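@channel anyone free to eyeball this complex?
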Amino acid sequence: MRVVIAEDSTLLREGVTRLLQLGGIEVVAAVSDAEQLLRSVADYTPDLALIDVRMPPTHTDEGIRAALVIRRQHPDVAILILSQYVEERYAAELLAGTSRSVGYLLKDRVADVDDFLEAVRRVADGGTALDPEVVSQLLLRRGGSPLASLTPRERDVLEAMAEGHTNAGIAAKLYISDSAVAKHVNAIFTKLDLSEAGNAHRRVVAVLSYLAAKDRRP
Amino acid sequence: MTTTALPDRAAPPALRYQQVRVLPALVYLVVGGLLGVLSIVSMALAFAVAVAATALVIPLPWGIKTLTGVWHWLADLRRAQGTALLGAGYLAAPLPHPNGGVVTQARARFRWPGTWIEFGYLCLMCVPAIVSGAFAVSWLVTGVTLATAPIWDQMLGANSNSGLLLLTSVGGVAMLAAVGPLVRGLATIDHGVAHAMLNRAGQQEVLEQQVHQLERQRAGAVDSSMSERRRLERDLHDGTQQRLTALALKLGMAKSQLKDLPPDAQLVLDEAHHEAKQTLVELRNLVRGLHPAVLDDRGLDAALSGVVARSAIPADLTVDLFRRPSRTIESVAYFVVSEALNNAVKHSQASQVSVSVTGGHAWMTVSVADNGIGGADTEGGTGLAGLRQRVEAVDGAFALDSPVGGPTVLTVGLPCES
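replying in thread with the prediction:
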């Protein structure tokens, strides 16, 4: 897998590069601002772009904006956004277009090497990786009746789904059996009145669209 | 107002009888009389202008502007009269001079309290000034005439009784002797009234300028504290947080690569990794408490969404703003909600919190209500006192309704114009 990194802190840029290389991932370019990022993506067509939200010149949301540009111009490049803080609003913006091959994680997650590499691979493969913190924000914001009808275990499964895990991944994460997961997933889709989508990716889309929809109020 | 120098803070006191000298006083009274005549003429003019304006012969704003200009000119003449002749001091009271056309100027002058104080004074003084001026002059002339009666008698060849002449002469001299005190007394009284009334206009001016200056200073102080916090947040983000993340990353990589360590070493490494990650979480919360970057980037709705979602007590949020308020106001609103939620979590034992932010053109309302045990107040060191200060520093309104046992509702109003 070939990756482009955009991160303005030298320390982190080099650290994450090494982390990825440790996982057998090739870093074709490591840049420090949005302009260079867009150029490298055009030049190297990587499989995935790992992008920091805050970069020069304004240090506000360059990363998000660059990600949306890349999504338009190079739709085959997977995008993984890293941020010091995750906010529900940015997630909603990112997911507005599509939730294929997109991730939004707290920078803290790089401290857990295996989980991080797994998320990178998952996103590059077409899946999603949403930080549990932003998922819980999305869930709490919805707050109203359909979500309230879920049992605590079903909420755990929903969160794990929204984070982008497959059934197997959910089973491992929650220490339950695959069949239990499937049962919960069915119940969730019924209660939320979502059509059961065939593959794992499509159902993540369904869940995320549900969560990210601003007009869903009880 | 376009005055650049700050006016004197306090009016110099009115002159006392002892400070008024005879000759200047006499001239003062004469001039006063003349000004009194001028004032009466200006009253007549005012009346004529009022009639003409009502009959739509001349436009009202122009009429007002001219009239107020004349009154002010007369009042200034009185001030000059006192200053030049008696050495008195007056507070400056310039007419308001906003940018704009005749209508704006007229309105500003009409509204200025000084205009009406000066007008009132002119009405009040015109007759007394004429009377005292005329009285002083005639007293003087009479005194001189009587005192020099023998000389007139001689010149006219009247040959009156010399005893009578003597009496008249003495009377005249007595009158002349009284001129001094008379004139000084009249001038002092006249000046006293002028001082009291004309300085009111000046006082108004000083107060307004002081208020403006204080408002500017306060806004400056509030803004600068907010920019400092923002700067601190940015420094921490760019420096410390990155460094800590890199540290946690390296520890994670070490853990992943050193799989064959003896158990003790493995444990230490695990703990170090865990501590580093924990520190990251704490630092992040601290930094967000300083100033949440998303507030600047995306506004209140986004920032509060995050706060509410992280709340330990289930909370719902409604945000309905007509337009985005200024950065300072957003910051205050954010901290009101954040602090109120913290308090609810720490003290209220509530099971549900409701946060609502609504705003119109000029005013917004932030309300945080919980169904807990109540009893909150601004004294108990809960940070509510500081919150109240912050709200009041931006001219907001702070109301806390928290009876013991009952629900708690914190309502904050904030001005909304950017």
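from a first look: The first helix of chain B runs from residue 22 to 54.
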